[in-house]
Amino acid sequence: MDIAGKNVLVFGSGISGIGAAGLLEERGASVTLYDGNDKLDAEEIRGKMKDGAKADIVLGEFPEELLGKLDLVIISPGVPTDLSIVNRMREADIPVVGEIELAYELGKGEVLAITGTNGKTTTNNMLCAALEAEGQKVICNHTGSNMLNGVVAAFVLGAGLNGHIKADYACIEVDEASTRYIFPQIKPDYMVMTNLFRDQLDRYGEIDITMNILEEMIRKVPKMKLVVNGDDALSAYLAMDSGNACTYYGISKAVMKSKTNEIREGRFCKRCGERLQYSFYHYSQLGDYKCPKCGFQRPVPEYDASDVQVGDQLSFRVEDHKITANYKGFYNVYNILAAYAGIRTAGFKAEHFQDMLKKFNPENGRMEQFRIQGTSVTLNLAKNPAGFNQNISAVMQDSMPKDVLIAINDNAQDGIDISWLWDVDFDRFQEESIRSITVSGIRCQDMRLRMKYVDIPTMLEADVEKAIRSRVADGTGNLYVLVNYTALFSTRNILKKLEGEQK
Question: Sign of dihedral through CA atoms 249, 252, 257, 260?
């Protein structure tokens, strides 16, 4: 996209709009930054821009005389695309594109999109670290901000002072529902799909709705190569049915017998409706399956984890590599394997993959470790039945005495329907090593009731910080904090604050 010397309007003055304006100026465009909110302060906006920025700032009613001067309009994600002024721009044959499309067009290199219900953030960050270990420069939305605004910001903020995106790759975590807004614009070169589980029913609807969205978006990018968890019948069906080139990863031999009584999302063949036959489950619907009627079956994975060991440390073999990691939770074998399959599919030999794992810190509430006044605290996200059951498995791998704190919110991003709590196998917390369970968050009373139904006593403290302080002061010295989505970042900030108080 050649924008040098062109008059460009950036519609929206948020952080991504300001970033887009700077990027355009550095590329030689004459920029007007516009926002319809006349209550904003132009000087305050300019203070957020790069030193020397020359962009005009226009607030309030749009000046009609500007229409005849514009060559291009960049519209921010938060701006409705059906505004009358936007429609008039189109009627005047002025190209109107999104910020994400701008960043993509101005960048070079390949894009890897990571999506799926569970494991996106860990897989995305691990794949980014693996690419960097191979000497590549990578743009990545590390914090898990995986909707349109977060993806836009990752690209825009990845631009250097000269406006160029000097990256070889972009590793972009994408919310499944947001693929409909993101994929048509950036057209990823690769998509890594981790799994498909029931999640946030009032936001996503039934899992078929998510599958329909993904199916449509995959078809819109026919050249995109898929890297798919073949142990998930739902993900495998989408891949096989798409016609896209596809690489599979998985675990061909049973590792451990599931102790959970889980909902199996993939019980029926998506091709013909017949009940699938499973020789074993790893967890939820992940396992070895085949359809006795139409022949649909688990694909043979190109990247197959063998000799899998689970405990205080994970280890397995894939190809000629011995992989070890100091993580708990069997589900992390899949996350590591997904990242490995991703980098191999992108054309690298993964010679530095194990070295990367030794240094890799999951962070952002994915088995993240804190040390507070002598207490070891592990923070992890648990936002749906499959994820929570795997969290419980990871906690129970620790045979030492421990305390557990569960914080459940019901904000819009969590989904206000928390009925999924009744599908989690909380009765596994009845073991002697669990010395206390504290329930917290907005829906702490609901969580307490859920635990009462499996005869597990709990302490109730709605305030998460007070709950943590109490367990640190009067606990085992080994605390696991399990939270759903909107409780994650606030809880993480609390833990970082408490950790900092002792320095």
Answer: positive
CA distances, 129 to each of 75, 155, 233, 259 (Å): 31, 17, 29, 33
**Sheet order of strands, 190-193 included:** 138-140, 169-173, 110-115, 190-193, 225-229, 246-250, 303-304
pLDDT tens across 292-313, in order?
999 999 999 999 999 999 988 8
Cβ neighbours, 10 Å, residue 51: 5
Over residues 245-252, the mean pLDDT reads: 98
Tell me which residue has tokens 């799926």: 116
Residue 161: predicted pLDDT:
46
Which CATH architecture does the domain made up of 7-97 adopt?
A: 3-Layer(aba) Sandwich (3.40)
Q: How many other CB atoms sit within 10 Å of the CB of residue 65? A: 7
Domain ranges of the chain: 7-97, 107-359, 366-501
Instruction: Give the residue carrying structure tokens 């394997």.
Output: 337
DSSP bridge pairs for 250: 304
Looking at the DSSP assignment, which residues form a beta bridge with residue 304?
250
Average pLDDT, the chain: 90
pLDDT of residue 121: 93
The lowest-confidence range among 205-209, 223-227, 305-309, 425-429 is 205-209
| Digit-coded pLDDT (tens) for 346-364 | 999 999 999 999 999 877 7
Q: What is the DSSP letter of 388?
A: H
Q: Which residue has the higher pLDDT, 395 or 79?
A: 395
Please count the CA atoms within 13 angstroms of the CA of 289 that sit on its side-chain side: 31
**pLDDT-wise least confident of 153-162, 301-310, 476-485:** 153-162
User: How many residues make up the chain in this entry?
Assistant: 503
CATH code that applies to domain 366-501? 3.90.190.20
User: Exposure pattern of 409-431 as b/e (b: 16+ CB <10 Å)?
Assistant: bbeeebbeebebbebbbbebbee
C-alpha span between 437 and 443 (Å, rounded): 15
| Distance set, CA 241 to CA 169, 238, 319, 369 (Å) | 27, 5, 27, 41
Q: State the angle between helix axes of 464-473 and 485-501 in degrees (0 to 180), rounded to the nearest 10.
A: 50
Q: Give the bridge partners for 34, in sequence order.
A: 11, 58
End-to-end CA distance of the chain: 50
pLDDT band per the 50, 70, 90 thresholds, residue 343: very high
Q: Which residues are catalytic?
A: 417
Q: CATH for 107-359, among 3.10.20.880, 3.40.1190.10, 3.40.50.300, 1.10.8.60? A: 3.40.1190.10
